[in-house]
Predict the 3D structure of the following.
Amino acid sequence: GESVGLHLPTLSVQEGDNSIINCAYSNSASDYFIWYKQESGKGPQFIIDIRSNMDKRQGQRVTVLLNKTVKHLSLQIAATQPGDSAVYFCAERGGGTYKYIFGTGTRLKVLA
Amino acid sequence: KAGVTQTPRYLIKTRGQQVTLSCSPISGHRSVSWYQQTPGQGLQFLFEYFSETQRNKGNFPGRFSGRQFSNSRSEMNVSTLELGDSALYLCASSLEGAGNTIYFGEGSWLTVV
């Protein structure tokens, strides 16, 4: 079946270090990908997106990399801060559909 | 601009009852989608509506249904509640749906006892 998975369910990083959260997707026809951040008790918050015709996109302190050859997506957070502690989800949109498939999430813990 | 608004935020229901959850999308957004999130699980797609029409449906039983009104507001209903329906139900809106970023509300926490 369709699925979006994450390699690391929990990632602990020191404050100030860079974080890398990985995601594997299964649908080679997916054409749009989004990373979300979800803090406890809140809904998912948009972080950054990327379309399948790109392999890299940068935002403020975040970078998303897309490798379509191996169907892999990653989120890089520079100079990780305590406020970055949350669960991060990747999501893919199947080409031509209106539904997004989410991974189970990676919990990022920032150590002081 | 106000975000996606969901009501109620918390509710407790008994097995066998039914529940209706409401969602008001971001102003100007015409696509509304619903997701179920359970502990330890990712978000599971329920359905998506655009201009009062359901365009896509996830793999949930018929007890889960939804609708969208002409003002783009949406409701979802779960009938004959089961304990396993306890979850966070998230609504998301986007301008059109396909290829547009979806923005989530804070969700409705449903507990079935």
User: Anything to note?
Assistant: Chain B touches chain A at residues 4, 31, 33, 35, 40-45, 48, 50, 55-56, 58, 90, 97-99, 101-107 (CB under 8 Å). The mean pLDDT of chain B is 92. Chain B is about 0% helix and 50% strand.
